[in-house]
Specification:
Elements lengths: L1 H6 L2 H17 L4 H28 L1 E5 L5 E5 H18 L1
């Protein structure tokens, strides 16, 4: 089952996870069925989290340096840099 979950597209895994949560919140499942769905939900959540982490690592922003050269940096680094520059502009204004 775990191998099958890894092959499911992210959006489909997320939708299935949402359905499982609704089923569990509904409270109409037998204990055995609730446990099975809970276990599947945990696997789906883990798969979705891993895929999001992988996607975040792949996101890079191309930044142009003052020298005219280009530099790649992670999305997180770019966001921090933008915040710092924004803070500096406010102080000088």
């Amino acid at each position: 089952m775990s191998q099958e979950i890894k092959e499911v597209p992210f959006e489909q895994a997320l939708k299935k996870l949402e359905t499982i949560v609704e089923n569990l919140e509904n409270g109409e499942l037998s204990l055995d069925e609730a446990l099975k769905q809970y276990e599947e939900g945990v696997r789906l959540a883990d798969t979705c989290t891993k895929r999001l982490t992988e996607a975040e690592k792949r996101v890079e922003v191309l930044m142009k340096l003052d020298s005219g050269k280009f530099k790649t940096m992670s999305f997180e680094d770019e966001a921090r840099s933008t915040k710092q520059e924004s803070g500096k502009k406010k102080k000088t204004s």
